[in-house]
Prior knowledge:
Number of helices: 7
Number of domains: 2
Structural class: alpha+beta
Shape: globular
Order of helices and strands: HEEHEEEHHHHH
Radius of gyration: 25 Å
Strand order of the largest sheet: 3-4-5
Distance between the termini: 75 Å
CATH topology of the largest domain: Sufe protein. Chain: A
CATH architecture of the largest domain: Alpha-Beta Complex
Protein name: NIF system FeS cluster assembly NifU N-terminal domain-containing protein
Largest sheet: 3 strands, antiparallel
GO biological process, one term: iron-sulfur cluster assembly
Mean pLDDT: 80
GO molecular function: iron ion binding; iron-sulfur cluster binding
Amino acid sequence: MTHSLYDFLNRPRLWRDTRYSQTTSEFSEISDPIHRRPRYVTDQGWLTSRTILFMRLFSAFMNNKFVQELLADHSQNPRNYGELPSPDVEAAMTNPQCVGPTHPEGDRVRLQVVLSDDGTTVETVRFTGDGCTLSQAGASLLSEQMVGVAVSEIVEWDSEYIEEHVGMDLTPPRLQCAELILTAFRQAIEDGPTNPSS
């Protein structure tokens, strides 16, 4: 049995080219009467299934390219990078599982946070560190999301939230890289105020 790329992409049978089908009856209402090729109606007119497939593949390619550029930008030009003179809470975390020429000891992130007067909301975030592109880009991206958000909400962020903001599905090892700053945040909150007497 011949399988098309449509089968591989798990597209409904309606999207397949008729040459991969035993019958053309299923396309009778939407087929091109000349070329017998299934078509799809859009606001812009009729599109062949091959055109739709190309558009989907091109969209996936462009999305992947955008994600790579986004991560590279946040890694090379991290937001909220630096130190705070008087943080309310802080913590340092390492990920020894991810080593490389620039980070032989693994990914490292040191996080400092200023909280609201009642200690329930993040007002300012700064971090320093070094490591793989994903760990540093993830720290930059997530630090932006932390500002103005309740502490109780941030500590509940899960892998789905992280994947949504870095723009890709992550394997467990890569998730450790991306969530390093979140792990540091949870540790900082657990450790409590840097200067309890202040």
